[in-house]
Amino acid sequence: MIDILGTDIKLTNFDMSIDDGDIELVTGKDCVKQDLLHAFLTPFFYWGMTIEFGSRLVEFVGGGNDPFYVADLRRAVDEVFQKEFRVQPDSWQVEVYKKASGVEIECEFLPIEQETPESMKFIINNRGI
What confidence tens digit (pLDDT) does each residue in 11-22 have? Predict the structure, then answer.
């Protein structure tokens, strides 16, 4: 049976994950989460296959914590979710928390054909995402 949420090579620390000599795969909701993370971490125009892949999050590295910064950051996260067809439309929630070390982003979303939301969290600070 084909999983509508997809199958991909499992990445660990941005490298292929190998178990007992075999390349590991990631499927279903875990594939969606990995692909979303890949989109968040990849700046626009960086990936040669298409200039439309990626996000603007790199623009926010080392940024401030003023309300306009946080609003634009939230918009940049929304842009990634809007392009992902495996996430139910308008099902995501984004929370941005100001921290001394940077900005923490928590996302919750509902993959298509799923009833349980998934969550992911990452931090933007002076060193990157």
Answer: 988 789 999 999
